[in-house]
Amino acid sequence: MIRVVVSPATIDVAAEMALSEADGVGAVATFTGLVRADPGAVGDVETLELEHYPGATEAALEALAREAQTRWSLGSVTVVHRVGPMRPGERIVFVAASSRHRGAALDACAFLIDRLKTDAPFWKRETRGGTAAWVEAREADDAAARRWT
Predict the structure, then answer these.
(1) What are phi and psi of 63, to 5 degrees?
(2) By the 8 A CB rule, do 1 and 62 touch?
(3) Model pLDDT for residues 72-131, shown as the tens digit of each residue
(4) What angle do CA 109, 3, 9 make, to 5 degrees?
(5) What is the pLDDT of residue 41?
(6) CA dist 93 to 41, 55, 79, 89, 127, Å?
(7) Theoretical Cys-Cys bridge with 105: which of 6, 29, 140, 149, CB 3.0 to 4.6 Å?
(8) Does the pLDDT of residue 40 top 80, yes or no?
(9) In what side-by-side order are the strands of the sheet with 84-86?
(10) Dihedral in degrees, nearest 10, Cα atoms 86, 89, 92, 96
(11) How far is the C-alpha of 95 from the C-alpha of 71, rounded, in Å?
């Protein structure tokens, strides 16, 4: 099973975990990403707003989920990503990969979070000190994604 959700709704981790565990596999690895305050020269992040291209974003996430499912023989893959305005401490992404054994679930989860940072069409805008600015791609994210090729 592959489940992809892109929505402004708050992520219910307990509900997502229950769905991921429902297929009776031996392991479920998860990642929950939170909006960081990320102190900087202009101050902490006050809000982070994510924009996306509806349809294209879901398709990109589904393609990554299919790749992970095939590569690691997963039982299920879940990717839930928020869009819209968020504040520090709020959940921005939840990824789960289930498999018969922990190694495959852990590797698939790492693959998914590394690749979605670079391969999914999201645009981020941070507000700091009352001023909004677009967030540029980070080389560290590109390097993390390259390790899976």
Answers:
(1) -65, -40
(2) no
(3) 999 999 999 999 999 999 999 999 999 999 999 999 999 999 999 999 999 999 999 999
(4) 95
(5) 66
(6) 26, 18, 7, 12, 19
(7) 29
(8) no
(9) 84-86, 45-52, 122-128, 131-134
(10) -160
(11) 16
3-state DSSP assignment of residue 55 = coil
The token pair that represents 149 in the structure block: 């090729």
Mapped onto helix, strand or coil, the DSSP state of residue 119 is helix
Contact 36, 90 (CB under 8 A): no
User: In sequence order, what are the beta bridge partners of 15?
Assistant: none
- Among the listed residues 78, 109, 115, the one whose alpha carbon sits nearest the alpha carbon of residue 3: 78
CB 74 within 8 Å of CB 97 = yes
**What whole-number distance in Å separates Cα of residue 50 and Cα of residue 149?**
27
For 1, the token pair is: 């099973």
Rounded CA separation 46/118 (Å): 24
The per-residue pLDDT for range 17-30, each reduced to its tens digit, is: 988 887 778 899 99
Looking at the DSSP bridge assignments, the partners of residue 86 are 48
Q: Which two tokens stand for residue 2?
A: 């592959």
